[in-house]
């Protein structure tokens, strides 16, 4: 039985000595840590927030990025002169709309494409004000060889789709649609497609419209971002105006904004969680009597965790490291860890009467 208490007695002895040192020299154990935490915490003034999904979730020297650099070196593409969707290696700037019929039937109907065509005309006429000039989509679009803007090929079949409703001999094939003038690839324009054994479309659940913008220069990127914001606002407002179609919109920075929303959704709960954790820590440090109860131990444990998190992140920011949204989970993890230390501390310290006296001496 004595052998089983060796570890407990050793730990109790060490804590007794530590308690006496803290009681004799409180300045070293209280004031100095606060000053050090304040010094390191000042690094928050150098915060550099990073929210680029590609940078955050892909390796910097990954094979895909190496191969992309090779492709861009050997086959450069300028979005203002020779844009080609099949050769694109970066998302660039764009607006995207996915159109779904409200009744859940096929999208290949005349009434559906009437509203899709109306939607397309509205988007084409979106106008932004930049450098005291009005810019439409055709002024800032990504251009193919010949100076033409990127077009949605599926809109060329509006008249054909009307004939399909009353003439069973008029059909469309997928993913390739051959006409006397050209061959269309509809793989990226239609979604939820059901075909027969001959590749003829039987049913189609959605249509996809893309509006690519020029991003070849910093100035073009600024205009593209302004247009994207107007695009989102406009399409979202149109979603309630159309009778037969429902719209889902997407732009180049939508993923980034969604990640930011996830981060911001945690912020309101920080203060509430801190209050709950503080109350919980105090309660778990309470004993059956006031002599052995240590409510302030719970408070100090939470405060020390907060100071530790602030000091650690501040020091890291002095080394010019980026701050990302997931770091907001760190205070929660630190509080949970501090709770475990706080919860176990009274049982480690109060192993005999001599230990109790040492703790009481330290607390005074």
Automatic annotation (TrEMBL):
<keyword id="KW-0472">Membrane</keyword>
<keyword id="KW-0812">Transmembrane</keyword>
<comment type="similarity">
    <text>Belongs to the patched family.</text>
</comment>
<feature type="transmembrane region" description="Helical">
    <location>
        <begin position="296"/>
        <end position="319"/>
    </location>
</feature>
<feature type="domain" description="SSD">
    <location>
        <begin position="266"/>
        <end position="336"/>
    </location>
</feature>
<keyword id="KW-0325">Glycoprotein</keyword>
<keyword id="KW-1133">Transmembrane helix</keyword>
<feature type="transmembrane region" description="Helical">
    <location>
        <begin position="266"/>
        <end position="290"/>
    </location>
</feature>
<protein>
    <submittedName>
        <fullName>Patched domain-containing protein 1</fullName>
    </submittedName>
</protein>
<feature type="transmembrane region" description="Helical">
    <location>
        <begin position="26"/>
        <end position="44"/>
    </location>
</feature>
<dbReference type="GO" id="GO:0005886">
    <property type="term" value="C:plasma membrane"/>
</dbReference>
<dbReference type="GO" id="GO:0030659">
    <property type="term" value="C:cytoplasmic vesicle membrane"/>
</dbReference>
<dbReference type="InterPro" id="IPR003392">
    <property type="entry name" value="PTHD_SSD"/>
</dbReference>
<dbReference type="InterPro" id="IPR051697">
    <property type="entry name" value="Patched_domain-protein"/>
</dbReference>
<dbReference type="Pfam" id="PF02460">
    <property type="entry name" value="Patched"/>
</dbReference>
<dbReference type="InterPro" id="IPR000731">
    <property type="entry name" value="SSD"/>
</dbReference>
